[in-house]
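Protein in question reproduced for absentees:

***
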Amino acid sequence: MLKLIIKKEFLTALRDIRLQVSGGILLILMLTAVLVGKQGQQQLQQEREAAQADMYEKWVNQGDKHPHSAAHYGQFAFKPKPVLSFLDVGLDNYTGVSVFLEAHKQHEVLFSSAQDSNGMTRFGEMTAALIFQVLMPLLIIFLTFNAFSQEREEGTLKLIHGQGLSMAKLFWGKIGGIYGMVLLLFVPIIVLAYLMLNQQSASLDTEVTTKFGVLTLGYALYFLVFVILGVLISAFAHSSGMALLTLLGLWVIACIILPKATTNLADKLYPAPSQFEFRETIYNQVKNGIDGHNPSDVRLASLKEEVLQEYGVETIEELPVNWSGIAMQAGEEYTDQVYDQEFSNVETIFHQQNRLSEWMGFLNPYLAMRHLSMALAGTDFTHHVAFARAAENYRRDFVKMMNKDMEVNHKPGIAYSDYKVGSAMWSSIPPFQYELPSTATILAMQWRSVVALLLWLIALSFIGSQLAYRIPKL
């Protein structure tokens, strides 16, 4: 009997001309978003790979020069375009593409797409994620709002119940049939997206298939939450109009009002410093010491005394190593401490803002799915920080090598301009490489979003099971 109900509801939805039109439009939008998104992702990744290779070639072929001059000549690190970003661009348009790596300074990741765009960028672009997260629930609303209310209004609900069919079976049968219709739209697009994962995808992210599978499962659960909610409201609404109005109100709150309100609340509770304040703090702490203690001249004098005692000499000229190399590396390490502290403070603020939004996923399934989708697509703030840290570690390593060479090989008495190294030194530093976080790492970071989605599904299923027997027939 349950299978017959599911089949009947599925065929009813399939034959509805209104849903044929809206579903067809949505299918075209999804197809366009996936095809255009994948083409864009491949093009951007190829451009960044080419730029990374070109920058490294220029580094290797920069000619003979002093190691410290080379450290200021620097390199660029380009952020890879994650494979699954063609499904969800997330924050990629706002977090920048590349970062310049040089001695003494930690630069931000710059040249985001939003910098070259007009004000319309803040409204987002037509991506698969936008369609799945915002427009698909809207379609589900039109599929479910009159699931029960129409039959009650036409008087067929009491007749069906009078033939011995329980309301509980009818309730779950309608959910099954409508959910089947949703999957009919979703599965072809997701299969097409999977077929578009090519060899380049595996080389860029070895776990792309696993992440894709988890993302697909997440969307399947997300759609089921809205189907159950829609049928449940239709079952107890006084009329189809009231059910539609209620569901549309919930959709507006969940997909439009609450996300913006949550962002504003997070910004008020955890305000981030301006870029000017951030840079001013770093400048003062490098010059005057962290918290105003141990200024730069005192640090340098103390280091000089320690080095002279270590080598048992009285003057810098008597050292068997180059004092400038030691001093520069010590300055690098102190500056790194300052940057680490200040960047950590700012990252903590942004993480607190994101945590608040993730906790709000327990009140709003849209927020839970949005965070999970961005994380699995590799376009959330966590991935941006991971790239920035990888680039910074690479910067520190090659600058340390330059300073060490200067300390060991630039003998006292040789003028700065007379000491030079060449391509053998430059090529000893490997190209910048960045690996995306694993699926396990992502899910560990996004456990709130995963639990929120599961709790929404469990809670609505439980409520539906308890209330199904009480669905009014008239």
In short: The first helix runs from residue 2 to 15. The mean pLDDT is 88. Residues 308 and 315 are 7 Å apart (CA to CA). Strands lie at 75-78, 98-102, 105-106.
